[in-house]
Specification:
By secondary structure, the chain is an alpha+beta fold. The protein folds into two domains: 7-253, Arp2/3 complex 21 kDa subunit ARPC3 (Orthogonal Bundle); 276-499, PPM-type phosphatase domain (Phosphatase 2c, domain 1). The chain is 59% helix and 14% strand. The chain contains 15 helices and twelve strands. It has helices at residues 7-18, 20-44, 52-74, 78-84, 90-109, 124-133, 135-152, 157-177, 184-206, 210-275, 325-342, 349-360, 441-446, 450-463, 469-487; strands spanning 112-114, 117-119, 288-294, 302-308, 313-322, 369-378, 383-389, 395-398, 403-406, 425-428, 434-438, 493-499. It is rod-shaped and about 120 Å long.
């Protein structure tokens, strides 16, 4: 049988399903309405014939729900959230004591008189205050509630006042022993049950006559324990939700702050880096130089440079500084500046890299790695003299022998050893030869790892080795763009090709 859809009911169902707190509030409202209607029927129209215990039970549930609605408002006030965040001040502690003391008084006034004793939820305010704000707040709120209870008199006045005071004190001690953390829903409800059991026990031990006290306890034990446990249950759910909300908000704020910090670092690093990229590419009649520079979204410490040493000699640098953004970028800029300024004073590449290493190694952290290939190209002799400190080695497309050679690579990096052991290599360059220098972004694009990527890139060069430097650069760029479109690849790409 299909029942007709009712928009209002569906809206309420969706709201409950999507909002934990809303579902709790609807539950409170439903219980309060049921309790109110029951009391109305019982007291005004005598429709239901209830025992004294059941009567007390229903009234206490209704009053608890009223307190919970009040508590919902209180837990959203600034002083409560400050206390919850452990930002204690005289002002917010005083407000906490006054408000929860008044809640305790309200719990007394909304109770039911049974044989001269009060069945109420007076202890709820001090218990919550202590569990959230510690001993001072708990005892402060309890003093207000207990002193007020003493002024009302009755044969249970002293044990009731004492139990309220102990409720605030014990709740505060639990806060202390738990290092200021809320004990959770189960812990709070268990504490409320134990505290109200103690309340009833004190009434039995201290109230006179004993027979009167026993009669009161027999009638009130179930309702008073259940009502306070119910109030604490909903209070604890509210507090737990609020703690979770604030934790989520803090994590969200920290996440966005971290994103903003990284974005700013990336912008600074990018500006520093691009300010040190070569403005012009040297061009000689006998050498064609083409560069592919494809930036990525994330930080990278790869850089290349051309340094004019003399009329016939050019320094070639291809390097990678990896590590934390800003330190790595500063080190990259520093290394490039040192190479540019000192290239004319160090005839041998090995001498220059050793000099650079001695300058940066005292202050470089273990997280930062520097690999670098530096060579000097003699334009007259067509000889490249180079050293390679663990950087990915270039390829030489040998025109006369129609094959591709991989140049040499040493294993030692800069920065972690005071004295580098590097080999110097010479390579003769002939007409039609192409020297292919690149960073690790190339093999990452061409394969799942560096070794496989290098192998695939070498095969790619083999197929296109007869192209000019300009055509080869465009072909590589098209291939990487295809890879990006297909796999969402994002790496910084540097490719430098010199054709003689």
């Amino acid at each position: 049988m299909n029942f007709p859809e009712i928009p209002l009911i569906n809206k309420i169902k969706n709201r409950i399903n999507n909002d934990e707190e809303a579902s709790v509030m609807y539950l409170h409202a439903a219980v309060a309405i049921i309790g109110s209607l029951t009391i109305l029927l019982t007291l005004e129209y005598d429709v239901l014939n209830l025992s004294e215990a059941n009567h007390a039970f229903i009234v206490l549930i209704e009053k608890t729900c009223v307190i919970v609605v009040l508590a919902y408002v209180v837990t959203r006030l600034n002083f409560f959230t400050e206390i919850l965040d452990k930002k204690f001040t005289l002002k917010n502690q005083a407000l906490m004591i006054i408000v929860f003391g008044l809640i305790s008084i309200f719990g007394t006034y909304t109770g039911i008189d049974i044989f001269g004793a009060q069945a109420n939820v007076r202890d709820l305010g001090p218990m919550v205050a202590g569990l959230v704000g510690g001993p001072i707040v708990g005892v402060g709120a309890a003093l207000i509630g207990s002193i007020h209870r003493l002024t009302l008199g009755g044969f249970t006045a002293v044990p009731c006042a004492l139990s309220t005071l102990l409720a605030g004190l014990f709740a505060g001690l639990i806060y202390k022993f738990n290092n200021g953390k809320f004990i959770g829903v189960l812990g709070a409800v268990t504490f409320a049950i134990l505290m109200e059991s103690l309340h009833l026990l004190l009434a039995l031990l201290m109230a006179t006559p004993y027979s009167h006290a026993l009669e009161v306890v027999e009638v009130l034990s179930g309702p008073i324990i259940f009502a306070n446990a119910l109030g604490m249950l909903v209070f604890a759910i509210m507090i737990s939700n609020l703690i979770r909300e604030r934790k989520t908000a803090r994590e969200r704020d920290e996440y966005f702050d971290e994103l903003e910090r990284k974005r700013h670092e990336l912008e600074v690093a990018d500006k520093i880096k691009h300010s040190f990229l070569p403005d012009t590419i040297p061009y000689e009649d006998d050498v064609e130089v083409k560069v592919l520079n494809m930036p990525s979204k994330d930080f990278d410490g790869d850089f290349f440079d051309f340094t004019e040493i003399s009329q016939d000699r050019i320094g070639l640098t291809m390097a990678d500084v990896s590590g934390d953004r800003i330190p790595a970028t500063i080190l990259m800029a520093l290394s490039k500046t040192i190479i540019r300024n000192e290239a004319k004073h160090h005839e041998k590449p090995k001498s220059l890299l050793n000099y650079l290493n001695k300058l940066i190694s005292p202050d470089i952290s273990s997280e930062i790695k520097v690999t670098i290939l530096y060579g000097v190209l003699d334009l007259k002799k067509k000889i490249l003299t180079y050293v390679n400190a663990a950087h990915i080695p270039p390829f030489l497309i040998n025109a006369s022998e129609n094959k591709i050679l991989e140049l040499n690579q040493d294993t030692e990096q800069l920065g972690h050893m005071r004295n580098l052991i590097l080999n110097t290599y010479d390579i003769q360059l002939n007409k039609g030869d192409k020297l292919v220098l690149y960073n690790e972004g190339i093999p990452r694009a061409f394969g799942e790892n560096t070794a496989k990527g290098k192998q695939n890139f070498m095969k790619f060069l083999e197929k296109n080795k007869n192209l000019s430097a300009n055509e080869l650069v465009k072909t590589v760029e098209n291939e990487i763009n295809n890879i990006k479109d297909k796999y969402g690849f994002d790496e910084y790409i540097i490719l430098v090709i010199l054709r003689f």
